[in-house]
Amino acid sequence: MLILACTLLVLLLILPFVPGTRELIKRRDAAPLYINIDYHKDPRYFAVSCKKLFLGSLKTPITVGEVRDVMLSKEEKVQIVGTVHVPAGSVIENILYVVQHLESETNVSFEKEIYVRGTARIGENNRLQALACDGDIHLMKGTKFFRWLDAEGSITVEGPCALGVGATCSGMLSLTRQCTFMKLYGFPVSVNVDPALLREDDTLGGESVIASGSLPLRDCSAIPASSRLNCDIISSKSMTIGEHAVIQGHIKTHGNLAIGAHVTIVGNIFAEGNIEIGLQSHVMGTIFSQARVLLKQGVRVGAKNRIKSVIGKKSVALEDNVIVYGFIMTEGMGVVV
Amino acid sequence: MEMVILALRGYLLFTIVIIVIYFIRHYVFTLNRLFGEQRIYYHDIIDSDLKTISVLVPMHNEEKVATNILDLLVQSDYSKDDIEIIPINDFSADKTQEILDNYASRYPYIKPLHRYTGDRGKPAALNAAIRIATGEIIIVFDADYLPPKDILKSIAVCFNDPEVGAVMGRVIPINTRQNILTRLLDLERTGGYQVDQQARYNLRLMPQYGGTVGGFRRKVVDDLGGFNTKILAEDTELTYRLSINGWKVLYANRAECYEEVPEKWDARARQIRRWSRGHNGVMFRYCLPLLSSPYLSFREKIDGMLLLQVYCVPVILLTGLMNSLALFFLGEMEMFSGVFFLIFIGAYSNFGNFAPFYQVGTACLLDGAAQRILLLPFLLFNFFFNMWYITKGFVDACIDVVTWRKTKWQKTERFRNGANKESVS
After folding, report:
1. Residue ranges of the domains in chain A?
2. CB contact under 8 A, B39 and A290
3. Contact between A326 and B46 using a beta-carbon 8 Å cutoff
4. What is the full DSSP assignment across A183-210?
């Protein structure tokens, strides 16, 4: 009995180490966690990667009209076309490689990715997965992307559209009301903008200087209207900034931040709470919130030839005439209101 | 005799209270990572106007690894107009100086600093380099690290937040395949970064600057008097000095970088003993300043205190274990019966090392590395090993405080047995 009990005790002591010993011998998970040493952040990564796959798979001479089996992420059928006009109500099941231009009528459903070497004009109420385009993209109302779209030129959205997880381009990205998005990248991203608004930076205005120096202004809950500050502002609570104020410095609040109309901020804005930027205000730096961001009518972020970001974890809402030079991102709902 | 038994009982209760407090702390962190709200990372920000940076790489006899890190830093995607790389040759007697001069002749932004006079050691070397650095931000890597192309941007962009004084990235061991020690250290690091540091970032507590794969504002650290050369844990000291002066330390989980962990138990013993000595030295100095800082919230102070005591807990545990043995042989262990006994056992088994088993397991799951969870029981050996050497480090720190003796920097031995960029591709 004693021998049995001792054997049982030894077995129970050894038992927890058996699976680990097996892993030590077999080394199924012994490799270091993977880091891509060559990773370089690119907001247009999806399109760059997709085009690389396409061009790599279509190295041999192509013929317009052929359907070729190519190895993308898996073996796929790619339909090669010249200029194509897709009639209303069509369902395109293959991947499309469009050598020239793409135009679609209403209610077309593209089930797979599309790579257009010319321009793309997508009709009303289309359904698309992903669209990479070497020219400009023009979207009519009601179009829905399930993944992403990218253009080497510009993207123009004529009506309410769902832009998937990302709409990126190297030119201007023009949106209209009720568009939804998660990531946007353009120079600039704009909403119903009057071209006259795409002007150079404002000169700084403002009146009395209420704070200036290398030390930050701490725990201030309100900056009066028309103030001028030349320092960083750090607040452990919510804060408001009155209209026509000019702040040359960065702002950080641990609560919400409400900025009035016609305010100029020459710096970055960070908040743990919601950020609301008032009418016609101009922020020269990045806007980052762990909650929501609302850019009211006429707000401008960044400047020409600079890249800045507007990031709101829970949502980003853009009103008419907003202009953002660079990147907009949210993990929640991005919407033009 | 009754007084002795009473004291022993009191100490045992104290030990259990401490363990339960840390158990709750780590449980909260683990639950946060599994079910809590995750704050988004600053590295999602794309900004064309990043600050100028100086990358400091302290090196003492680093001929085995110097070229690896310099080759990778040269490939960084940070604008070369905004960067200077200062490898610090700290009293090297091997070919380190020759290697650095060779790189300097090829890349104008590599500006080696050769030190053969003054104090030796990382804090003194960093102070010397900070004095000649011109970047607004200082980013530090140890010589055995392998920084990815984008990591400088990922760290530098965090300083767009005006409240951030220092940023810490994530360290990932590269030489995990070597032996059981490297695999256990990998588990420890995984739990420490993927759950512990990230949860502290999520909960707006006090993430720790770890002295490498991280950066700080040059002017701020310069204004605060640079690094204290009498303290071995200059990183922990900077964390507290910044925090009590109103600056935040930010953890950037996506700023990942490979490091080489010790492959021999004696090298690990020296490393953990040095960490314990340094960290406990900081604990002796910063408890009161932390509690009296006007810039920290109540929960930041609590977390700061628990972090400050973290190298003290294994000492309390070891003495608690000895204490419980004494009570057992004195026949006084009946105080722990029923529910209390369960708490006693539960508390002991819950506290692994710096990261309990549930925290390490969760971290492995989050990293998608489920098979290595099977190694968790082996952490028991690491636990007793660490407990012993941390206790020795604690004694060293106590002697430092009493005698005011001068601390001597001990470099961790490098191995580089195939642990380079190619070994993970």
Report:
1. 46-171, 209-322+329-336
2. yes
3. yes
4. EEEEEEEEES--GGG---PPPP----EE
Q: Where are the beta strands (DSSP E) in B152-213?
A: 164-173
Using omega within 30 degrees of 0 as the cis cutoff, is the peptide bond preceding A188 cis? Answer: yes
Q: What are phi and psi of A44, to 5 degrees?
A: -100, 25
User: B42-303 has which CATH code?
Assistant: 3.90.550.10
What digits encode the pLDDT tens for the residues A27-53? 999 999 999 999 988 999 999 999 988
b/e per residue B127-166 (b: at least 16 CB within 10 A): bbbbeebebbbbbbbbbbbbbbbbbbbbbbbbbbbbbbbb
Q: Are B62 and B97 in contact (CB under 8 A)?
A: no
Higher pLDDT, B350 or A192: A192
> Which of A35, A270, A309 best tests the B interface by mutation, with the highest count of B CBs <10 A?
A35
A108-130 pLDDT tens trace? 999 999 999 999 999 999 999 99
Burial environment of residue B68 by CB neighbours within 10 A (0 to 12, 13 to 18, 19 or more): buried
Residues on chain A touching B44 (C-beta within 8 angstroms)? 309, 311, 329
For residue B161, the Cα-to-chain-centroid distance in whole angstroms is 23
* CA separation for the pair A311, A165 (Å, rounded): 14
Please state, in angstroms and rounded to a whole number, the distance separating the CA atoms of residues A271 and B62.
43
* Terminal Cα-to-Cα distance of chain A (whole angstroms): 79
Residue A205 has pLDDT above 50, yes or no: no
Where in chain B are the domains?
2-36+309-403, 42-303
Q: Are B188 and B382 in contact (CB under 8 A)?
A: yes
pLDDT at A76 over 60: yes
pLDDT number for residue B323: 87
